[in-house]
Amino acid sequence: xxxxxxxxxxxxxxxxxxxxxxxxxxxxxxxxxxxxxxxxxxxxxxxxxxxxxxxxxxxxxxxxxxxxxxxxxxxxxxxxxxxxxxxxxxxxxxxxxxxxxxxxxxxxxxxxxxxxxxxxxxxxxxxxxxxxxxxxxxxxxxxxxxxxxxxxxxxxx
Length: 157
Description:
Layout: E1 2-7, E2 34-39, E3 43-49, E4 57-63, H1 76-83, E5 112-115, E6 132-135, E7 149-150
Antiparallel strand pairs: 1-4, 1-6, 2-3, 3-4, 5-6, 5-7
């Protein structure tokens, strides 16, 4: 499992930086809804809206361990392909719809790694924020060669 956080309208790596318009409008809440967008005209990316109403935030699901071992889920586009997520899923309620987030095995804080987000160099100082999280030693991450630091639970508030 691997995710990246995008928080606030000031986050230069976030789609919310353009304000509450276009595809980013859903990021302005409420939490618990799917934000699905397309990149390069062919790949979908799945995010979970996470913050309170009127404060934009979402978590991009970068990698999963697919239930079907013949599927690949190591990258945002592969996550969507494995889960059959398309633009039609954008805006779905992740509690009441057929698209939902199920419980996963618990992971100890010591097994979580943090590091900078991927592919957001254009965002200046925001690119280096340690808002990418993944399970150490997992074979199911998008960038296995990237090392990170151990999660400090104080980071989570």
